[in-house]
Write a structure and sequence with these properties.
By secondary structure, the chain is of the alpha/beta class. Helix content is about 40%, strand content about 25%. The chain has 7 helices and 7 strands; from the N terminus they run ααααβαβββαβαββ. α1 crosses α3. It is globular. The two termini are about 15 Å apart.
Length: about 220
Amino acid sequence: MQKEMQKKLSGARFRWINEAMYTETGAHTYAMVQADPEIFAEYHRGFAEQARRWPENPIDAIIAQLRERSRVVVADLGCGEARLAAELGTQHAVHSFDLVAHNEHVTACNIANVPLDAGSVDVAVFCLALMGTDFMQFIREANRILRVGGELKIAEVVSRVADVDAFVGALEEQGFRLDRRRASKMFIMLDLTKISKHPAKLRAVPGLLKPCIYKRR
């Protein structure tokens, strides 16, 4: 009984943290977890529990793609436990960023402002990481750090993307070209190439991605 109650409380806490991360700005969430890093640890414990139930994990597909490549510079934006760095760090130069430094691979920051030079990255990755109400600022930051011709890889939950064409159009407005789009029952994956710098102003397009809110039980 006590274990079951603890599990329910942990689940409720995870849902609260998850909802906050999707419905606040990146800067707000960064400040929140820096003030209490245990929030981030709790989130990732809950996330890992959810991921164990998935029939597939998109990070595995991204790792498999990058294994086939010669050495490149990778920015893993919203990296969580930094699996890209852990599994590919001897093959590629992998820079991992998230709200809290979960391990030695990770640099803590708001991924709208990462400590990398402009044009210094070959591949930027967002794997289930476009959280927050200002996620397009993350896309603009990816554009800044990518070289022209560099690649942007995005994996998201299918149910978040109400209109795929509208989402892709918004990405293209930020200086990217769509090269490949594929979807499974749970996830959509986009491969894009940077063809130009992002525009000076960001045009507001509401409703591009829905927050991923877990049902209360």
